[in-house]
DNA sequence: TTTAAATAGTGATATTTGTCACGGCATCAA
DNA sequence: TTGATGCCGTGACAAATATCACTATTTAAA
């Protein structure tokens, strides 16, 4: 990642335009962080003080059930926001794990700064509203894929939306994201 | 519904508090509408000019696939917001159907008034942000239920969250919401 | 009232998917 | 290099779910 500040600004300006001053003010609320492959950014039972904007790398958001079986709620790569939103917004303990699949560079935005940001910046409040709406629509699309499609179709949809995942993520993880066993996924093609 | 204005105001004030003037201003953007059981509020291919706040009754948001098979994206009853959000926010044609399961009374909020509302009211922008976040978290919970649970467990989760659905909705529709055939659902108990 | 449509249950069977077990590679660290 | 670990495929079988066909009952409309 050559220029994190420019990258974040460009990301925000896809939604709303900013003056240089506004951009600098906004970016001052973020903290640049690096994580190594395999590192846990969020762990179950801990506080979730930050939402992350991924600059480079790849992370997975995971739920572990009573049988210690892991289910991938989502992947997040460059240009994506991620955290345990339930825990972050309600300021409860994490029920999800956020783990790096690759070395990852991200901006962290603390809950306090998150609140400050949209108290102080009408534009950022608008920005987060749009992002949140987009997230909601995206989730609904994923729900529809469970309702309408079998494992093979869901796999094809995932790869056509996100071809790079095939190179970057083990197939067992793709299976976990799709809600299918790794053996079944392996036999689909 | 005895007093729609009071009902809507109380709903909003669960998130942010309002003065009488603010409440009146906000409510002036909404239009009261009645629909009959079986009536289509949104139809595929049409414009989606409004988001609806349900005061009484029950509606279902449906996707129809290539085989003319219907899949229920969500139900909305009293105190819920509903529309084809994808179409509404992006101002494209509807890909979903919104149909009344019961006679329904709802406030309609036009796209123009929606935009005006949160240009003019910081509080409503905050309100919609919170609602949108809650919707996103809710969708993620539903995705997790597909990842972690079989048909019987999903059915139990749905009923424990929403017991009244069992009385108000045919089981074939519950099956459609759960992503399971009506025959399988019928055999689960 | 009479009829048509919607809803619900169930048997028989096919299809999809999960589970367990095993082996082959590749990767990575001691 | 060697051994451990993760990743991937696959056979054999079990479990979950879908599909088709039929019936009974309820609901709603003519």
Automatic annotation (TrEMBL), chains A, B:
Domain of life of the organism encoding this protein: Bacteria
InterPro entries: cNMP-bd_dom (IPR000595), cNMP-bd_dom_sf (IPR018490), RmlC-like_jellyroll (IPR014710)
Protein name stated in the entry: Crp/Fnr family transcriptional regulator
Signal sequence residues: none
Start and end residues of each Cyclic nucleotide-binding domain: 14-126
């Amino acid at each position: 990642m050559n220029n994190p500040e420019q990258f974040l600004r460009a990301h925000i300006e896809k939604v709303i335009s900013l003056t240089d001053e506004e951009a600098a003010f906004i970016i001052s609320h973020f903290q640049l962080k690096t994580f190594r492959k395999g590192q846990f950014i969020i762990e179950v039972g801990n506080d979730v003080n930050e939402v992350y904007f991924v600059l480079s790398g790849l992370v997975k958001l995971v739920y572990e059930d009573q049988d210690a079986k892991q289910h991938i709620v989502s992947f997040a790569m460059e240009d994506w926001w991620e955290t345990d939103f339930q825990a972050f917004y309600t300021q409860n303990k994490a029920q999800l794990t956020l783990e790096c699949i690759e070395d990852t560079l991200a901006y962290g935005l603390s809950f306090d700064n998150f609140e400050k940001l949209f108290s102080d910046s009408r534009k950022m409040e608008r920005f987060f509203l749009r992002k949140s709406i987009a997230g909601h629509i995206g989730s609904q699309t994923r729900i529809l894929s469970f309702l309408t499609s079998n494992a093979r179709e869901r796999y094809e949809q995932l790869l056509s939306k996100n071809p790079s995942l095939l190179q970057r993520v083990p197939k067992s993880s793709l299976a976990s994201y799709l809600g299918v066993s790794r053996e079944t996924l392996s036999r689909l093609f």
